[in-house]
Write a structure and sequence with these properties.
About 55% of the residues lie in helices and about 15% in strands. With about 425 residues, the chain is an alpha+beta fold. The protein has three domains: about 1-125, Beta-Lactamase (2-Layer Sandwich); about 190-275, Orthogonal Bundle (Helix Hairpins), CATH 1.10.287; about 280-425, 2-Layer Sandwich (Heat Shock Protein 90), CATH 3.30.565.10.
């Protein structure tokens, strides 16, 4: 399209140049004709025929067409014959096969006679033809150069487009490790490739997460469902023992309750990640919320001979108090669960150079640095949690709640134990 626009513009430019040059040359010729005719028209009537004969005898190059016509249309003298009347003062082109084309203008004298003055325009025609041929040839050469340049300049983008198409086909086939090639020119194709790469990376992450969750669900639920099947199979072989049947039903019900509990947790995480709970947001006093959570878990800490410390300061945020209460409860429950007997657990509102935060600390075994990202995923349980009852979904629920509020969760070493830091936005 750009080439087509350029070609149209070039043709228009060449046409304007040609017509402007031809008009200028014709106008110069007409001015010369008018000047000569006006000189002859100023000659007295009795001397005009002799002056016309004199000019014809001189035979000046370019001015060899003169004629004098009487008022009644009778030719007096000259070498021009009119086939049709002319408008006085308006030059016209006359084609003559024997003498070539010439430009002719008619003037009325004071005595009513008509004076014809003509000028040979063969050279003018040749010059106009030369200009036209020059413009055409130069235009064709420019068009060829533009076409060659367009083809050459289009090859690189087309190669890049083909590479993008090839990469997109591989991505569509399911290979999310492929990325769109980036040439580093920061042009439209690079911007498009960057956008697609970011999209593919996010889609690949989500697909990997879904696959991981699916595998984790299958692995985690296989054990309780296998127990239920074994229990029912055992009951089928001993249907006449009421006590055994009742105990088996209780065991199967407990296992199925565990399965339903895990499915409910998964649905809750999905609901939180979809962001459907923001309707309950309002101003919350975090100091009061932390104190309520600590009060709830203080009896549990006392039962395990764990010293629970609470440190608060005035701090207000926008959020859902029930969801945040649930998240803090999960964190404090984990801290008490993994703290050593007779140890310490603390929950505090802090503020430093990094901003405001909620910190939950314990002095238990902690989490190795290489596992801190993994424990935030669904169903993953650390090495220290193998013998502790749980589903591996508690931290996933916490992360979903915090993401809904725009908070960030960081795990670090408390030396000893684990420090869970909930970083709050600086605008709060």
């Amino acid at each position: 399209m750009l080439g087509a626009v350029f070609v149209i513009g070039l043709i228009a430019m060449l046409g304007v140049v040609y017509f402007a040059a031809a008009r200028d040359l014709t106008a110069r010729s007409d001015r010369i004709l008018h000047a000569v005719a006006e000189q002859l028209a100023r000659v007295p009537a009795d001397q005009l025929p002799d002056r016309v004969r004199y000019e014809l005898g001189r035979n000046r190059t370019g001015f060899n067409y003169l004629a004098l016509i009487a008022g009644d249309g009778t030719p007096v003298l000259g070498n021009v014959r009119l086939l049709r009347p002319l408008v006085p003062g308006r030059p016209v082109d006359v084609e003559s096969g024997s003498r070539g084309p010439f430009r002719l203008v008619a003037f009325r004298t004071r005595d009513g006679e008509t004076l014809l003055v003509g000028r040979d325009i063969s050279l003018l025609r040749d010059l106009r033809r030369t200009i036209l041929e020059t413009l055409i040839v130069s235009g064709l050469l420019i068009l060829l150069c533009v076409a060659a340049a367009a083809v050459e300049f289009s090859r690189a983008p087309l190669r890049r487009v083909r590479a993008l198409q090839h990469a997109s086909r591989e991505i569509a086939a399911g290979d999310f490790s492929v990325r769109m090639p980036i040439a580093g020119r920061h042009d439209e194709l690079d911007q498009f490739a960057n956008t697609v790469n970011a999209t593919v990376e996010e889609v690949g992450r989500v697909v990997a997460q879904v696959k991981g969750v699916t595998d984790a669900i299958a692995h985690d639920l296989r054990t309780p469902l296998t127990r239920v099947r074994a229990t029912l199979n055992a009951l089928a072989h001993r249907p006449h023992d009421p006590a055994e049947v009742a105990a088996g039903i209780d065991r199967a019900t407990a296992e199925l309750d565990l399965v339903l509990e895990r499915f409910a947790a998964l649905l809750r995480i999905s609901e939180l990640e979809a962001g459907r709970r923001r309707a309950g947001f309002h101003r919350i006093d975090l100091a009061l919320l932390v104190a309520q959570v600590a009060e709830l878990y203080e009896p549990l800490a006392e039962d395990r001979d764990i010293a629970l410390s609470v440190a608060t300061r005035p701090l207000w945020v926008e959020g859902d108090d029930r969801l945040l209460f649930e998240a803090l409860s999960n964190l404090l429950d984990n801290a008490i669960k993994f703290a050593r007997p007779g140890g310490r657990v603390g929950i505090a509102l802090t503020e430093d150079d990094r901003g405001a935060a909620i910190e939950v600390r314990d002095d238990g075994p902690g989490i190795p640095p290489e596992e801190r990202d993994a424990v935030l995923r669904r169903f993953h349980r650390g090495v220290a949690a193998r013998d502790v009852p749980g589903s591996g979904l508690g931290l996933s629920v916490v992360v979903a709640i915090l993401n809904l509020h725009g908070f960030r969760l960081h795990l670090s070493d408390a030396r000893p134990g684990l420090c869970v830091r909930i970083a709050l936005p600086r605008s709060m």
